[in-house]
Amino acid sequence: MTPLLAGVPVEQTVALVLAQPSNTNDDPGGQGEDFGKSSPVGLVLMIVLLIAVFFLVRSMTKHLKKVPASFEEPDAEPKKD
C-alpha cells in the first residue's frame, strides 16, 4: 500500500513539487527600484525610540540612586563586652 499525504500518494506529491516551474522571468524577487530605501516614517520612529530609551535610562538611574548599598539590617545597639 502506498502512503498517502492529504489523500494523494506521496510519489505524486513529490513529483508535483519537483515539477514546479522555476523563476525564469526578469522579476528580481522583490528587489525593485525602491529596495533598500527607507522612508521618513522610519526616521521619525527611530528618533522617538531613542528619546524613549533616553528617558527610561534617566529614570532608572534616579531609582538606582535611591537603592541602599546593603540590604542588611544595621544592629540596633552595638555589642558591648
Sequence-ordered SSE layout with sheet pairings:
Elements: E1 4-5, E2 8-9, H1 10-18, H2 40-65
Counting DSSP H or I runs of 4 or more residues, the number of helices is 2
Helix proportion range: 40-55%
In percent, how much strand structure appears in the residues?
under 5%
Q: What is the end-to-end distance?
A: 93 Å
Return the structural class: mainly alpha
Strand/helix succession: EEHH
Shape: elongated
| Uncertain stretches of 5 or more adjacent residues | none
Number of strands: 2
- Main pleated-sheet profile: 2 strands, antiparallel
Quick check: average pLDDT?
Answer: 78
Oligomer: single chain
- How do the strands of the widest beta sheet line up side by side? 1-2
User: What radius of gyration results from the CA coordinates?
Assistant: 33 Å
Q: How would you explain this protein's 3D organization?
A:
The protein is mainly α and 81 residues long. It has a domain of 28 residues. The protein is 43% helix and 5% strand. The protein has 2 helices and 2 strands. A two-stranded antiparallel sheet has the order 1-2. Strand 1 and strand 2 form a beta hairpin. It is elongated. The termini are far apart. The mean pLDDT is 78.
